[in-house]
Write a structure and sequence with these properties.
heterodimer; A: 133 residues; alpha+beta; Glutaredoxin; 4 helices; 16% strand; B: alpha/beta; Rossmann fold; 5 domains; 4-stranded mixed beta sheet; 19 strands
Chain lengths: 133, 597
């Protein structure tokens, strides 16, 4: 191990290290973040969900977007896999279908960063038990 | 650090380890490897999550899924279902005792919702054996900033403004303590961390050292800079092997990075830490006794003054702080004194860690802002009383504290309110009692502890506590008189007033507070010879209900003293004078015909 010789060294080191911890920091305050859930059931994975998830995670890290990517189970939209659900704080969740890596980048650029919807939105017609009071 | 998409945090505290959490780590890792997910998921051994009731705990990040009571054989399923396919393993989720619904993530658990974790901020969050994870969370940034920008006086001033008070029990303002030690001139001064956690039922210091040792080391270095000490000592009991191991790892990592040792971060300031082991005597939590023990002498207290700040370890000015106090310190410097002072009540700032134990659903470690009510702690965080029984009292402050009763449920908890209620903060043990607990026996239990732990140096504590214990035993044995109650009270005050150190000065508190709040129960013991809770064996009255007794003679054969007589198939009778109240008949009877009063 290398000695840390100054406060600047320490700060630089923190910067290099924090990336690995970001996911834990973010998950500590999930409500205030954009939550992206990638459907990762068998059909989702077969259609390429894992690649989509990786792309999203890399984009978020690169552009320092306050978002968190989680895995979800099957959402039932088998005809449109891979599907992802994006929930921006204060807004209703939006589900996108047929998301490949290119579409994933588009979603980040247009919807997440600029609030514009893109093609491929699946109208949500469900409520989850968490919302039902 | 590599970029993982999923972190599986496994509790590596003493409690969860005892239930094989180390095997769980191995199994998770091998399952992850088998399924080719090594690039995606990381298994991290962390400190205590606090939810010890349902350990071992595995928490999955980023979705905060909180798996409880995980067994080594569950690991494969967790990896196959959750890591690979994103499906939670429902049967392992925490089940809300009230609604009986599975709770998907820790953010929705009542246990965590009211908590504010400052001292425990890294426990259950980072790997305590990896200094990099501590640095990633701004570790050692506080000492770095202080060394670069502040004089010791300025740093002490921040500590004073924060309003932090000692968490070991006394509640003395930390900033003032530092200021006194800094003003005493000497060629060598010492910073001592008191990790001699002795209260029965309290384990916050252990959990902090196991889960976040670096925050304690960093705080000691800060204190060293403030008071002008270059040496730190941690006095820790040898019966905390895991905490000792994690501290050793942390010290050697900090030394390798140059965060302990000479010229820290290129400044003239040097500071190093050494461990000193104690044999686990309660009295050694008292600072003068602690210092004597560290010097190799008997762990006996001496009269203060001189205070350790003037004449401490090896006769040099010494500043002693408790583990939890120290764990608060780095954050105070990072976030500011105003931030810390905005939490809590007027005279008690910040948070306090409590160890919940006893008849409560969620046994574990919690950290809450000062000023929270007992009701919130017991019913919302603690999940209420076990088995739906009735709340009777909660003992705070361990053997030095007292009982709080139903009428205190809505009192905001802080140092001063607890003292006013006849108890004390102590180190933060909270033992919850229900209607089945006999308060005389509770007082007796604590006295048994203090009699055992008294060092014997001064007579009031050595002899007085023994006498108190004898009287309590007499009352529990059904031989007490009303005069005894008066005697108990008087003797208690004498011990309090004349004992040398904090141990004796507080040891009668459990007696006094139970006498005050549960005088009826004492009276019932000595007047009617009844133990309302049915705890005191000698005060139990066993009778046979004639209409339920079938005359099977099972009890007759079970009775060791031949106190039960009766014809076959006829109701039997217990001879009260012969009966030794052992309860053998009660256990044997299949027809619930034995009645206990």
């Amino acid at each position: 191990m290398k000695k840390i010789k100054s406060l600047d060294d320490l700060r630089q080191m923190k910067k290099n290290l924090e990336q690995g911890m970001n996911i834990r920091e973010k998950s500590d305050t999930p409500e205030s973040l954009i939550q992206i859930r990638v459907a990762m059931a068998t059909c989702g994975i077969a259609a390429g969900a894992r690649g989509v998830m990786n792309t999203l995670i890399e984009r978020i890290e690169k552009d320092k977007i306050p978002a968190i990517v989680t895995q979800g189970g099957c959402m039932g939209y088998c005809y449109a896999e891979p599907t992802i659900e994006v929930k921006i704080p204060g807004k209703d969740p939006v589900v996108f279908g047929n998301v490949d890596t290119a579409v994933a980048n588009q979603i980040v650029d247009k919807y997440i960063l600029n609030g514009e919807l893109i093609d491929g939105v699946i109208p949500t017609n469900y409520q989850t038990i968490n919302e039902k009071k | 650090m590599a970029q993982y998409k999923m972190h599986l945090l496994v509790c590596g505290g003493t409690g969860c380890r005892a239930s094989q959490s180390d095997v769980i780590v191995k199994n998770l890792e091998s399952s992850i490897k088998e399924l080719g997910l090594s690039e995606e998921a990381q298994v991290v051994t962390t400190g205590c999550f606090g939810f010890c009731e349902k350990g071992p705990i595995v928490k999955v990040i980023p979705d905060n899924t909180f798996y409880t009571q995980v067994k080594p054989e569950d690991c494969e399923e967790i990896v196959r279902e959750h890591v690979l396919k994103g499906r939670r393993v429902y049967r392992l989720l925490y089940e809300d005792p009230e609604t009986q619904k599975h709770i998907e993530d820790s953010k929705h658990m009542g246990f965590y919702q009211k908590q504010l974790r400052i001292a425990l901020r890294n426990c259950g969050f980072i790997d305590p054996e990896n200094i990099d994870e501590y640095i990633a969370r701004d570790g050692y940034a506080a000492i770095g900033n202080i060394l670069a920008e502040m004089s010791p006086e300025q740093a002490i001033d921040i500590m004073k403004k924060s309003g932090l008070r000692g968490r070991g029990g006394g509640g003395f303002p930390t900033g003032i303590k530092w200021e006194i030690a800094s003003k005493n001139k000497a060629d060598q001064k010492y910073v001592v961390c008191n990790a001699d956690e002795g209260d029965p039922g309290a384990f916050m210091d252990r959990s902090i050292l196991e889960g976040d040792p670096h925050s304690v080391l960093e705080a000691m270095a800060i204190c060293g800079y403030c008071i002008g000490a270059s040496k730190g000592l941690i006095y820790i009991r040898a019966e905390y092997p895991l905490a000792i191991k994690r501290l050793q790892v942390a010290i050697s990592q900090a030394r390798e990075y140059g965060l302990l040792g000479d010229n820290i971060l290129g400044t003239p300031f040097s500071f190093d830490v050494e461990l000193k082991y104690g044999a686990g005597a309660f009295v050694c939590g008292e600072e003068t006794a602690l210092i004597h023990s560290m010097e190799g002498h008997r762990g006996e207290p001496t009269v203060k003054p001189p205070f350790p700040a003037e004449k401490g370890y090896l006769g040099k000015p010494t500043n002693v702080n408790n583990v939890e106090t120290l764990a608060n310190i780095p954050v105070i410097y990072l976030k500011g004194a105003e931030w810390f002072a905005s939490i809590g009540t007027e005279k008690s700032k910040g948070t306090k860690v409590f160890a919940l134990a006893g008849k409560i659903n969620n046994v574990g470690l919690i950290e809450v802002p000062m000023g929270i009510t007992l009701r919130e702690v017991i019913y919302e965080i603690g999940g209420g009383i076990k088995g739906g029984k009735k709340f009777k009292a909660v003992q705070t402050g361990g053997p030095s504290g007292g009982c709080l009763t139903e009428k205190h449920l809505d009192t905001p908890i802080d140092f001063d309110n607890l003292l006013a209620a006849g108890s004390m903060m102590g180190s933060g043990g909270m033992i919850v009692m229900d209607e089945d607990d006999c308060m005389v026996s509770v007082a007796k239990f604590y006295l048994e502890f203090t009699v055992e732990e008294s060092c014997g140096k001064c007579a009031p504590c050595r002899v007085g506590n023994k006498r108190l214990h004898e009287i309590l035993e007499k009352i529990c044995a059904g031989k007490g008189t009303e005069d005894d109650l008066e005697y108990l009270k008087n003797l208690s005050y004498v011990i309090k007033d004349t004992s040398l150190c904090g141990l004796g000065q507080t040891s009668p508190n459990p007696v006094l507070s139970t006498l005050e709040h549960f005088y009826d129960e004492y009276l019932a013991h000595v007047r009617e010879r009844i133990c309302i809770a049915g705890r005191c064996k000698a005060l139990k009255l066993y009778t046979i209900l004639p209409d339920k007794c079938t005359g099977c003679t099972a009890c007759t054969r079970a009775c060791p003293v031949g106190a039960i007589t009766g014809e076959k198939r006829q109701p039997h009778v217990i001879d009260v004078d012969k009966c030794i109240r052992c309860g053998a008949c009660y256990d044997k009877c299949k027809f619930t015909a034995i009645h206990v009063q």
